[in-house]
């Protein structure tokens, strides 16, 4: 009798799993999920970003996926990103409960600001971090060696829970490693490598001309002074365009850090439930914004002209969001922008 009931139990379990993968009413559309696996088979291992773009073309700028049995909403394009991360920032500022923070040992209860869920504690910590970094001169022209060391020390305290002395050998090594890695990662040869996969017949010539023009701006500034400072960026518009175009093309964090809804909310006419304490997982596809048709003059090419207006002046389009947008935008944006300018 028990053996004869096995097929029935299998059918019941399969039916329950199918119910778990059902989309709520007015939830964003998406590909049909499989029990247990969800939509994992909709993605290839070699290029999942290409699969996300394929799904966007099929279902629109807001669509849903199942990562295993868990539903997730993918946000594409400037309009949807602006509504979620800026207009309704508090509704989408949560962090999913199943991010790696919950797999830390019990002896490491502190998750920091990046992985911390949205709430009063997170607001206070972020406000304090912004105020402290600004007081130390983050992003300012006067930010020198000691200040860089201090800011690196603050970051080490957040990461490792230890505050080192200014003359400590460890913090000196950390700062030196960051400097050397930045030179390698952001130098001229790395610039060429980052844009290499966008190659066309004329791309090599474009890259070469861009580097030459940057060097000409640098040489022109050095004719008037012995050292270039961060404030000189206003007199070097083409240098700024190249730096920003490299960040747009490189797109080092194409899906940013996952968000979750903090309450029942709507996005582009769709309903996203909080689902008790869990919240709906929200994935920002920054790649779709940084390459969106209609937002860039040359969305799929390396062209510094994407950041130049008709008068040849540097402008930053609203679609430039390599650090995400809204209340949970990366704290390091100002520091990164200033450091790249100095390099």
Automatic annotation (TrEMBL):
The keyword Nucleus does not apply. One of its GO terms (cellular component) is cytoplasm. Heme binds at residue 330. Keywords: Heme, Iron, Metal-binding, Monooxygenase, Oxidoreductase, Signal. Belongs to the cytochrome P450 family. It holds the Pfam family p450. GO terms for molecular function: heme binding; iron ion binding; oxidoreductase activity, acting on paired donors, with incorporation or reduction of molecular oxygen, reduced flavin or flavoprotein as one donor, and incorporation of one atom of oxygen. The keyword Translocase does not apply. Gene3D superfamilies: Cytochrome P450. Its cofactor is heme. One of its GO terms (biological process) is organic acid metabolic process. It comes from Lates calcarifer (Barramundi). SUPFAM superfamilies: Cytochrome P450. This is Uncharacterized protein.
């Amino acid at each position: 009798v028990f053996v004869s009931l096995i097929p029935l139990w299998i059918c019941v379990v399969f039916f329950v799993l199918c119910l778990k993968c059902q989309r709520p009413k007015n939830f964003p559309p998406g590909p049909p999920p499989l029990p247990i696996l969800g939509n994992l088979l909709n993605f290839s291992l070699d290029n999942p970003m290409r699969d996300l773009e394929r799904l966007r073309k099929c279902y629109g700028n807001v669509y849903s996926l199942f990562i295993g049995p868990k539903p997730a909403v993918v946000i594409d394009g400037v309009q949807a990103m602006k509504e979620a991360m800026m207009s309704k920032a508090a509704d989408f500022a949560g962090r999913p409960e199943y991010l790696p923070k919950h797999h830390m040992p019990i002896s490491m209860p502190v998750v920091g600001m990046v992985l911390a869920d949205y709430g009063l504690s997170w607001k206070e910590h972020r406000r304090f971090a912004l105020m402290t970094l600004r007081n130390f001169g983050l992003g300012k022209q006067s930010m020198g060696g000691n200040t860089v060391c201090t800011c690196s020390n603050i970051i080490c305290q957040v990461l490792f829970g230890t505050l080192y002395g200014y003359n400590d050998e460890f913090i000196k090594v950390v700062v030196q490693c960051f400097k050397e890695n930045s030179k390698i990662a952001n130098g001229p040869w790395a610039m060429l490598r980052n844009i290499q996969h966008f190659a066309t017949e004329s791309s090599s010539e474009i890259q070469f001309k861009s580097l030459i023009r940057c060097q000409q701006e640098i040489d022109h500034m050095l004719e008037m002074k012995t050292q270039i400072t961060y404030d000189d960026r206003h007199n070097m518009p083409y240098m700024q365009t190249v730096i920003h175009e490299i960040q747009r093309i490189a797109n080092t964090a194409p899906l940013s850090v996952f968000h979750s809804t903090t309450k029942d909310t709507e996005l582009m006419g769709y309903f996203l439930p909080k689902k008790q304490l869990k919240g709906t997982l929200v994935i920002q596809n920054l790649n779709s914004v940084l390459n969106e048709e209609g937002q860039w003059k040359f969305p799929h090419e390396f062209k510094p002209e994407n950041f130049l207006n008709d008068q040849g002046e540097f402008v930053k389009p609203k679609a430039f969001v390599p650090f995400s947008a809204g209340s949970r935008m990366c704290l390091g944006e100002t520091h990164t922008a200033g450091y790249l300018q100095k390099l």
